[in-house]
Design a protein that fits this description.
alpha/beta; 33% helix; 17% strand; pyridoxal phosphate binding; dethiobiotin synthase activity; PyrdxlP-dep_Trfase_major; Aminotrans_3; aminotransferase
Amino acid sequence: SPQLGALLHRSLRVYQIWGANTEVGKTVFSTILCGVTTKYRPDEKTTFLKPVSTGPLQEADDRHIPRFLPGVHSETLYQFDLPVSPHLAAHVSQKNTPSDREILSRISEFASYHASPSPGWLFIETAGGVHSPGPSGTTQADLYRPLRLPAVLIGDAKLGGISQTISAFESLKARGYDVELILLFHNDTYQNHSYLTSYFQDHHSIPVKTAPLPPPLSPNPQSDTGNMQAYYTGTLPSLSSIPSLLSSSHANRISRLQSMPTTASQTIWYPFTQHQHLTPDKITVIDSAKDSHFDTFVPSSPGPVLRPSFDGSASWWTQGLGHGNQHLSLAAAYAAGRYGHVMFAEAIHEPALALAETLLSGMGNQRLKRVFYSDNGSTGVEVAVKMALRASRGRYGWEGKEKAGVIGLKGSYHGDTIGAMDCSEPGVYNEKVEGECGWLRAQRGRGEGSLGRWGRFLIWREGREEGRGGGMRRDPLFQRTLVKVVRASPELFAGKHGHTHGSNDELDWSGLPVVYDEVFTGLYRLGRFSAASFLGVDPDISVHAKLLTGGLLPLSATLASESIFRSFLSDDKSEALLHGHSYTAHAVGCQVALESLRQLMKMERNGEWDWAVSTKRNKGGDQSHGVASFPQPDRRVVGSRVWSVWSSELVEWLSWEKGVEGVWALGTVLAIHMGRAGGDSAGYKSNAARGLQAALLRGSSSDGGVHSRVLGNVLYLMAGQTTTEETVRRVERLVRGGLGDGD
């Protein structure tokens, strides 16, 4: 079945009707909405859909509406006889319970079938309250979220209904729904409508419309029908403004999406973008995102104007638990409500402390004892450099005039702030930034240059496999050897007055402080909590960001050993680590990161990646064209096998494909090195991967598209940790198609 995404048609105005609770009048208001839209423009077709209904068939909602509005097509997709919550009704009925995806697919197909070039209406009514479970047990607020339909909320006019209505609204809002209208009965006894009208208009600018209470149910069916017919006839005129309101909202939404690229091209200064060549048609409008996909605007489409596009860069490597993750959203709301932001110097709050404890425990590195918070990976790197410089100068007695710098790897990348750029080989990103760095090329069995040349330089491991200037490269054997040689050679770095040995503590750093930049590679991006386990040697300092908050908020943590920490201890305040920013360890970010790590660790414990770990391509450590051999990890590593979500069949096929120079896959990452054509060169300035990138963006009608980023001649793709096997295989089909193999 086609890849699902948000549902928005140019001509068909679709609204989802939610109830603040059960028995609030959803079906009555659905009938009113169908009635006023039918009278609004008689030539426009109005349709009603009840995806899931429970209770006797003769009392089903889709039978109520045609009784009073014969011209309205009404339909139910799944009917269960027992008048209870859908999950229980489905279980008791012993029928095949429809999956969430099946329900969403049928809704999408229903909407497409009833959409036409002429304007029309479709109202989709939910069952029970906002969090009433669907047949599978998923609450409706989460079940229907991938469609992200604009919402009409039916408020509760009964006692306690004010709280129910506001709670229902906040649940929808927290999940990214746009509530366009509030409807409820006018109840003079409780006056809920009076309070809620002011509340929603004053605080949220949402209109509230009321209708009189319907007549009591008559024991005589014929009388009851007559009473309700009279009720609708008398009520519809007072609510005749609703269609114009909803129609304008629909038109304004599409108009805004249509104009955003032009407005953005005149307003926004984009990162990593040469604006000389950026025209509005090259700007992707993202209406929303859910799980592993963006919902992107298709301006030329006469029908659905949104299509699902796989987030191929994991939103610059940050995404892991899926866009719109309700657990992370709730964690953020909780911390925002409890703390907002509180300053951190010489203070502590639970999210920051709990996150630090979780990070240190999860790393399994006995060297690491301290956590320093900053705002992003690049800043975290600069913090690490400050730590390492201070520790080295203190031990070796380097004088102020003596130069100190970095030993790094060619093609490495550690961020875009000046200090982080100075830790990378001069290239496109930092060639105008002065630096004092030496660079070693990682090659099997040998390194280019020697450590002796760089007497007083810090060691740096290329932790970000991606390396914006250098594509995606790695050689764990070289890096492992480099660390061991440096730690065994402190005499290379001692100054005139320094000594070569630290304390007798085996966890003290030796030679030079070893820094691992795990901003990109850590926290399960490559399949393990820490990428250090691939090398079999632990760092003295490590930097983490990206997946730390599951893709929701910026936050970074620099972890350090106790011996590094002690380098800053002094009676002189100026000897402290004088680094920080206003939002250091912001509580919202720390709470989200804590929830993110808990979710990821739970997924590992529950074996949720077993479909990727247990396949034939991941049985061994050395795989043809794919993952190279790694040192055996120690006993602390859970799930220590080397694995990839990308199939060995795809990697094998790519390795033989014309125009592909190389390919590797590890964890959730796939990197395709395209060959150079004509005078094109490798590296960031290359355009060799642009053709494949464009083909992936075009995609197909069944599999959607792929929004990806390229690094010169390298196109990389990465899944999230919650990306399903089905989704990965869809993307693999698109990759094959993009390179000319449609099979």
